[in-house]
Amino acid sequence: VPRPANAFMLFRSDFLRSGTVPSEVERKQQTLSKLAGKIWESMDEDEKSKWRNKAEKVKDEHRRAHPDYKFTP
Predict the structure, then answer these.
(1) Whose CA is closest to 8, among 50, 40, 56?
(2) What is the mean pLDDT of residues 28-48?
(3) Can you tell me where the transmembrane regions are (predicted)?
């Protein structure tokens, strides 16, 4: 069972689905992550807070669906 996505990963997924990413960047995951990271760093705390709240909801849903889940790297 994969662990739940954090705030940045939820943002990155939404960023990719938004259609604003050029196709040459979309194919290169490293470049995509760097671009999303720069945008994430430039966001204000209110905007990041929205993603953190979504991540908490995802984490809670994951906890309910998999109560015995323990992350093991």
Answers:
(1) 40
(2) 94
(3) none
